[in-house]
Design goal:
Chain A is of the alpha+beta class and 172 residues long. Chain A contains six helices and five strands. Chain A is elongated and about 65 Å long. In chain B, a hairpin with a 2-residue loop joins β3 and β4. The chains are: A alpha+beta (172), B alpha+beta (149). β2 of chain A pairs antiparallel with β2 of chain B.
Chain lengths: 172, 149
């Protein structure tokens, strides 16, 4: 394996925080509809403006998925509003697997909201897996806010990065 | 327009099971996943790419699994419910050919700072892997309205 100094990476990147990035578009109906369609979610609170207007919320809500909130805050627009995590933290392997996600909600999101995100690297550590003894794990915390600068949710995401078996064999 | 049924905190008991959700994982679902999650990482739709990384094949992404668990919870908690916290672990995979079941069970309930909370164990499973995505959630529910309202 090429030289990879996990301690140097930890020292440089843990605590690193991106500038606040705002999604290019507001929270919109159709991405919510597509999100619901993939899991056969027919909840009218997420899909039907007329129904939603008659509820205490008064507007179509975004399902409380951290993934979807992050989409509207950053990943939704193409090109992305900021570079994905990889260029921030160097790792020996470029393959990614999401291992866990925790979302703490403080407020609901509704159509028309403008979401922003700040991403912070909370931890980086090396822990081998069956196919790659040099796998690197990255824990990121993402704070998503709305147009009133109110925190709507905080996401804590743990990602595993690894090399392919071919790369492991070549670098052994 | 008719409002959806609303579960009240008073009517929830520890041990209650949530109505389960079943989703067939097939090629069509892979396309729906890419459209609905906007996750274009090829490990979720390109078998050769996935296998090169050491996986047996393509598998469903975190956005999809999370959406299914969120549906399980929001279907149950009603319009007035509030999902306060959700944690999921992507331990095993759902792949084409599987049927993904989403399930949940009430594990505790209480009151804190005026909020009526319910804790739940939530998970996805399939016949090939058993429990694939264990998780836990906290939901805030309204109190039952007095009948004299």
């Amino acid at each position: 394996m090429p030289d990879y100094d996990i301690e140097a990476v930890r020292e440089k990147y843990i605590g690193f925080q991106t500038a606040k990035a705002q999604g290019r578009y507001p929270v919109e109906y159709d991405p919510i509809r597509r999100h619901c369609q993939m899991v056969e979610d027919t909840n009218p609170l997420f899909l039907d403006p007329k129904y939603a207007a008659g509820t205490e919320h008064g507007a179509v809500l975004c399902p409380p998925s951290g993934w979807l909130a992050l989409y509207f805050a950053s990943f939704g627009p193409w090109p992305a509003a900021f570079e994905p995590l990889f260029p921030i933290v160097p790792t020996p392997g470029k393959r990614i697997v999401n291992m866990s996600q925790e979302i703490e909600w403080s407020a609901r999101i509704e159509v028309g909201d403008r979401l922003s995100v700040v991403r912070r690297i909370a931890d980086v550590f090396q822990k081998g897996i069956a196919i790659d003894p040099a796998a690197v794990w990255i824990v990121a915390e993402l704070e998503i806010t709305n147009e009133d600068d109110e925190v709507v949710c905080v996401i804590r995401n743990t990602m595993l990065t690894h090399r392919t078996p071919e790369e492991v064999a070549a670098q052994a | 327009m008719m409002q959806r049924p609303q579960v009240a905190w008073d009517d929830v008991s520890v041990g209650d099971d949530l109505p389960e959700i079943s989703l067939v994982i097939n090629t069509r679902r892979l396309f729906l996943q890419a459209s609905g999650s906007q996750d274009w990482y090829p490990v979720h739709f390109d078998a050769a790419f996935a296998q090169k990384a050491g996986h047996e094949g393509v598998f469903m992404n975190t956005g999809f699994v999370q959406a299914a668990i969120v549906r399980l919870l929001t279907d149950w908690m009603g319009d007035a419910g509030f999902l306060k916290r959700l944690r999921i672990e992507m331990r095993r995979q759902h792949r084409p050919g599987d049927t993904m079941l989403c399930r949940g069970r009430v594990t505790a309930k209480g009151e804190r700072d005026g909020a009526l909370w319910v804790n739940l164990e939530v998970w996805t499973e399939n016949e090939r892997e058993g429990v694939a995505t264990p998780g836990e959630a906290t939901v805030i529910l309204p109190k039952r309205r007095a009948t004299a309202d």
